[in-house]
């Protein structure tokens, strides 16, 4: 499981925690992914860490509390997706032809993992990729396949893509193919390893699957993923509560007349004041939403304080930031950790930080 990226698109949330450790629906993204792996019969996972490596082992330990055997391999410099896979090769067990399942650590997906592995084995492929269909593939690299499901190309972003299928960030590698990735330098599987395999005529298979899939890389997707877990649109055995309209974690205090809904999460020790509305938003642990404030489709960092009457819609507030009363932020605005916005100081929207 690759969990070493910088998560630049989720800044400033990823300034204090790596993306795979940010809580969606109450627990880290990685906890949901590990639960899916375990539920699929995977017993042992190696976490390839780099950025903020130490926090993974602090949280997950040897994995026994999660029903898994976990190991950690930390890169001294970030090696990219392919380099990270190569870097854990010593820890992989099994023979040269055995399948190794690789997960990008920021994906929520209902993929049938055993079916992906079966497909790989039946086709005797070098690599088998989970592919997912998106409505508008122009912003992605697309992965066309032939009638037998064999991948014919890896096409970078193009205005006129020949297919809606994109790389969904979960792969099965034949173990010996990992040995062939160059060691000790950054390698991208998407840009180097996969195109190289195709050029050499090695069989690379696609496994299209139309179950739930979401890349949690952007703030909007992060909020969406959390909502989908809370409301049960995406099932996860790691969800720390029943499926419903909202998830309120132990130790949170919510005023009786506050409105929490739309799949919102209220973190441990967070507080929501009288008459406040939290709609589809994610409040990290210890966040405070004061009386009459409205927080919609936003992420509120740990211990951040949202003042009375504030309106937030589609924004990211860093850990410990203070938004005093009567501010209004919308549509992509981001506030750095620890920043203070004085009362009534801003009414702004669209991607300002
Ligand atoms: P952005 O900077 O916002 O693009 O996010 P990211 O750093 O996570 O990059 P991206 O989403 O492309 O990464 C896909 C997956 O690979 C994520 O799970 C990352 O954690 C992981 N990843 C990316 N680069 C590295 C790396 O150098 N080492 C390791 N171990 N994992 C990586």
TrEMBL record:
<dbReference type="GO" id="GO:0016740">
    <property type="term" value="F:transferase activity"/>
</dbReference>
<dbReference type="InterPro" id="IPR018357">
    <property type="entry name" value="Hexapep_transf_CS"/>
</dbReference>
<dbReference type="InterPro" id="IPR056729">
    <property type="entry name" value="GMPPB_C"/>
</dbReference>
<dbReference type="Pfam" id="PF25087">
    <property type="entry name" value="GMPPB_C"/>
</dbReference>
<feature type="domain" description="Mannose-1-phosphate guanyltransferase C-terminal">
    <location>
        <begin position="243"/>
        <end position="326"/>
    </location>
</feature>
<dbReference type="InterPro" id="IPR005835">
    <property type="entry name" value="NTP_transferase_dom"/>
</dbReference>
<comment type="similarity">
    <text>Belongs to the transferase hexapeptide repeat family.</text>
</comment>
<protein>
    <submittedName>
        <fullName>GDP-mannose pyrophosphorylase</fullName>
    </submittedName>
</protein>
<feature type="domain" description="Nucleotidyl transferase">
    <location>
        <begin position="2"/>
        <end position="229"/>
    </location>
</feature>
<dbReference type="Pfam" id="PF00483">
    <property type="entry name" value="NTP_transferase"/>
</dbReference>
<dbReference type="InterPro" id="IPR029044">
    <property type="entry name" value="Nucleotide-diphossugar_trans"/>
</dbReference>
<dbReference type="InterPro" id="IPR050486">
    <property type="entry name" value="Mannose-1P_guanyltransferase"/>
</dbReference>
């Amino acid at each position: 499981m690759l969990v070493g990226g910088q998560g630049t698109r989720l800044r400033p949330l990823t300034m204090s925690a790596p993306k795979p450790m940010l809580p969606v629906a109450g627990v880290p993204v990685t906890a949901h992914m590990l639960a899916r792996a375990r539920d699929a019969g995977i017993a042992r996972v190696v976490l390839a860490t780099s950025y903020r490596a130490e926090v993974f082992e602090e949280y997950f330990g040897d994995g026994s509390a999660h029903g898994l055997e976990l190991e950690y391999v930390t890169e001294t410099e970030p090696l990219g997706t392919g380099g990270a896979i190569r870097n854990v090769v010593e820890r992989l067990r099994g023979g040269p032809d055995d399948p190794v399942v690789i997960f990008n650590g920021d994906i929520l997906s209902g993929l049938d993992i055993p079916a992906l592995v079966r497909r790989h084995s039946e086709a005797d492929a070098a690599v088998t990729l989970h592919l997912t269909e998106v409505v508008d593939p122009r912003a992605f690299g697309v992965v066309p396949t032939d009638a037998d499901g064999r991948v014919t190309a890896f096409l970078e972003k193009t205005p006129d893509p020949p297919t809606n299928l994109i790389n969904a960030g979960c792969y099965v590698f034949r173990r010996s193919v990992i040995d062939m990735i160059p060691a000790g330098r950054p390698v991208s599987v998407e840009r180097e390893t996969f195109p190289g395999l195709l050029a050499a005529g090695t069989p690379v298979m696609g496994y299209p699957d139309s179950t739930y899939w979401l890349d949690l890389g952007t703030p909007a997707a992060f909020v969406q993923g959390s909502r989908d877990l809370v409301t049960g649109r995406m099932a996860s055995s790691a969800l720390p509560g029943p499926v419903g309209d909202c998830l309120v974690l132990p130790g949170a205090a919510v005023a009786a007349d506050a409105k929490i809904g739309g799949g919102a999460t209220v973190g441990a020790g967070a507080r929501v004041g009288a008459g406040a509305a939290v709609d589809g938003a994610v409040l990290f642990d210890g966040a405070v939403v004061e009386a009459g404030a409205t927080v919609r489709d936003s992420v509120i960092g740990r211990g951040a304080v949202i003042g009375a009457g504030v309106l937030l819609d589609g924004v990211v507030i860093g850990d410990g930031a203070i938004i005093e009363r009567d501010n209004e932020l919308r549509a992509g605005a981001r506030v750095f950790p620890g920043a203070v916005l004085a009362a009534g100081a801003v009414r702004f929207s669209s991607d300002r930080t």
